[in-house]
Amino acid sequence: MKRVSHMDTSQVVVEMKDIVKKFGDFTANDHIQLKVHKGEVHAILGENGAGKSTMMNVLSGLYKPTSGQIYMNGKPVNFHSPKEASDMGIGMVHQHFMLIRPFTVLDNIILGIEPVKGVVIDKKTAREKIEELSKRYNMSIDLDAKIEDISVGMQQRVEILKVLYRGADILILDEPTASLTPQEIEGLMEIIEHLTADGKSVILITHKLKEITASSDSCTIIRAGKYIDTVKVDEVDESALAALMVGRDVNFKVEKEDHDAGEIVLEVKDLHAKDYRGVEILKGLNLNVRKGEIVGLAGVDGNGQIELVEILTGLRKADSGEVKILGKDVFNKTAKETFDAGISSIPADRQKHGLVLEFSNENNMILQHFEEAPFAKNGFLDRKAIREHATELMEKFDVRPRHAVGNPSGTLSGGNQQKVIIAREITNDKELLIAVNPTRGLDVGAIEFVHKYLVEQRNKDRAVLLVSFELDEIINLSDRIEVIFEGLIRGSVSEEEIKANKADEKELGFLMAGGKR
Amino acid sequence: MKKKINILDSNVFYTFLAIIIGFIIGALFLMVAKVSPAAAYGKLISGVFGKPKYMIWTLVYASPLIFTGLSVAFSLRTGVFNIGAEGQFVVGSLAAVFVGIVFKLPPVLHAIVAILAAAAAGFVWSYLVGLMKVKRGNHEVLSYIMFNWIAFYLSNYLVNTELLHKEGDGEATKNVMDSARILFPEGLRNALGCNAANWGFILAVLVAVAIWIIIEKTTLGYKLKAVGFNKDAANYGGINSDRSILTAMGISGMLAGVGGAVQLLGMGARISQFAGQEGFGFQGITVALIAGSNPIGCIFSGIFYGAMKYGGSKLTMVGAPEEVIDIIMGCVIIFIAVAQVFKRLFKSFGKKKEA
User: Fold this and answer.
1) B234 vs A336: CB contact, 8 Å cut-off?
2) What's the whole-number mean pLDDT along residues A226-232?
3) H-helix segments, A303-413
4) Is the model's pLDDT at B355 over the cut of 50?
5) By Cβ atoms counted within 10 A, which residue in A31, A159, A222, B335 is the most buried?
6) Are residue A142 and residue A169 in the same domain, yes or no?
7) pTM check: above 0.90
8) Which of B287, B224, B304, B333 is nearest to B71 (CA)?
9) Gyration radius of chain A's alpha carbons
């Protein structure tokens, strides 16, 4: 699907020229260039930590550039605060939404610039203005709902309406699809279409190449803080973009030789469980994973896959059913027992479950083994053995910066935090590896790396259960795909069908939406 | 430039800054009370450093505070907030006074049994709060505060029971037997010029080092810290977080309990009926915060607080109200709490100059 371009090449609405931003000795932006036209969708592409966010924080008035100049409609401008940038028509939608959860949608949108009648907030005028905006850009939303009651996709709409309400003509969207479901992403793309048709410009920060080719007119690539190039998206393909971004060729197709699956490792039978609200979320689920195969569990978020993983890893109790690892019963066992029985996992939320962010990387590397030799003797930690272990893993799994063994994991970038977890879990080398959204928020270089290790586990005759909201990832990696919908496996795609390219996103999307075949 | 940034990064710098600001604000209050700050602070300093025996007294004052400080610091490092050190201190001293009055044991052994009883009492007192937290989800801060008052009234009740109450009038227990005391031998005490000089401080230093080792060097410390920082990740890693929380809270309570024993067997020898909470546990919060929750730091901040308490008791001699000490310590805590704000301010200053 290629959208219609609304770009007006005769009119440059904003330009960043030779922007340099230094933090102490560190240069986050080194002579960055950017030119955005009216009605254009302009993507900013770069690896984790390349300096995209710094660049946008300069543009939105949060940071003052060390040198360089910003121009709007040809005139030089200097922002001293985000408010000044906002007054000039630049609005930013942050990756992590800045909303007050107990407030209504309406209250959040007008917060800070409430229209008043005397001393009373004039909600009627505000409501009319917002309703007009949401109609114009086809963003239906319940203005009286509370933020905590609406979905992530809706919250994002609130953020977009917030900047539009403030009169933004240039919208900066920072990783807007990172937490959206495929359906919500489609909705967002439609909104962007309406915005540009109306003459607004959109700057899209992302590292998802497919979204760029599907939605953008141009793309500016930065690498390690430096400006690399600006390209017309029509004229390049995804692999060219990826190569520009990481500075080398990237292999998209996962290298995967044939490998025969062996005996059943994980066997789940008739599993029933409730979610935190007490609503039944797993309704008699059956699933098995064999040695030497990657089973992809596809599904829209909220259909029970997260609960399933939590049950398998001992973090949640199920109501009834059977769970076995190589014939051994692990139903409703503790996290330690399931781990010892042979289940390791790359958790969905790396900061909640995967890492103790305040702990050093070397400490996080031994999370399941801190009481065992060689890391502990008679109740005392052996610092030397722990450091050697961590140094070796950081080298092998390319965790950067390499010297950070003793630094808190919280100081690493998201991608490197994920590498710490992957290093630990791959090294645990259990019979079954469960990987939940293992590449979420990673750039293509890191994704390639993670995929390589998952395939390596499978080639070593381990069983791999891949739970992912990225359909591409599921299709590329899996030997077999199972689709979960409303707590049940609704359909599966066999190895033969995947090989014959019969598993396309449309077909899977149909199953994921509850369709039967 | 590099070096300057390092100083601005250091917490110790901000702690000293907070202490200085505390003294400046204390001086303002002294001026309001029409007392010369120079005279008052002069008295404070000479009252602590003037004679060697004053310094020994300072250590005697510091010993129980180091224990309650360690108690709070240990809890903070393991992710709970022991605001109940006050109550654990009280039940610790109750257990010690009971053993000291009722048991008949040879010297040394008697003191050891009394201290162990205090440790057990403090452990149980805090562990109960832990059970309420783990099993019922009651927030520990609320339960701890209530347990402080339960300990307070329990103490006032027990002080007046026949078994413990001293003969005749007065609202206090009998003195514990000499065999249970932890005083230095009489000759040494005379030489030091302090009749309450005791082993408490040495015990406090040893325990502080032991707690530091537990937190930094052992698998137990790893486990308790992991749960304290991120319970979910600890659970995911196979650590039983409920059990860890109970252990951490028990140990924390134990430390405060021993503090109660040290105060009783070293200095007081008996428990009087309270009119209000004595505050050793709450002062422990201050000690822990000044120390940045570092066990070794608690030794020094405990000495600092001990010096302020001991020196402050002499302020009346120059007509200054003793309460100015509380004002100073309160300000110190406030400014340590806002140290992070200072840190950011100073750093952004530095950055602007650079740019």
Assistant:
1) no
2) 93
3) 305-312, 335-341, 361-364, 383-396
4) no
5) A222
6) yes
7) no
8) B287
9) 25
